[in-house]
């Protein structure tokens, strides 16, 4: 309604110029009391019990619009998704004192890898659900900006053997590149461990303790090469 009103006003007056000339002081929507009361009933206990209410952003969108509701949707989804790493991180202080140091380092590495996967999945899922919400809330222009249809997209190929083969190749490449990164990093970590166990030795004309420091850059180089490929 506000967008339609602004569009109609622009045909006859310029609100921004009127504000500059102080013909009007402010231009803003006033609250609709009945709608505000209805929203208050739906989200009365928002900070406590409604953190996990799935339809809460939809209720906000009905009154405040899609832009405000998008923030609540992100906040709502992020809070729910944080429960998983929060449970694991809460258990760490109780586990670490009872395991050896090297096992604690491995546990930290595993948790770091888990967070990388968790972040990737969350961002992908968040983008998908946000586009779905924008479509539901009628933000057509915003959806077209963030989800353009590719020129080579063909709807009739959905579920076909060609699409299945493309998906199989895609995930094969994903697993291949991820496996290469894991195995290469593991190889460098083991090699550096051997160098630290023999600090007086020489590798590539350098003392093992110095060579072990430079070997860390091989991990970065591998990331750059894999990214370019």
Automatic annotation (TrEMBL):
Residues 61-161 form the Anoctamin transmembrane domain. The keyword Transmembrane helix applies. InterPro entries: Anoctamin, Anoctamin_TM. The keyword Transmembrane applies. Keywords: Membrane, Transmembrane, Transmembrane helix. Its main location: membrane. It holds the Pfam family Anoctamin. It is found in: Membrane. It is a multi-pass membrane protein. PANTHER family: ANOCTAMIN (PTHR12308:SF73). This is Anoctamin-8 (Transmembrane protein 16H). It comes from Durusdinium trenchii.
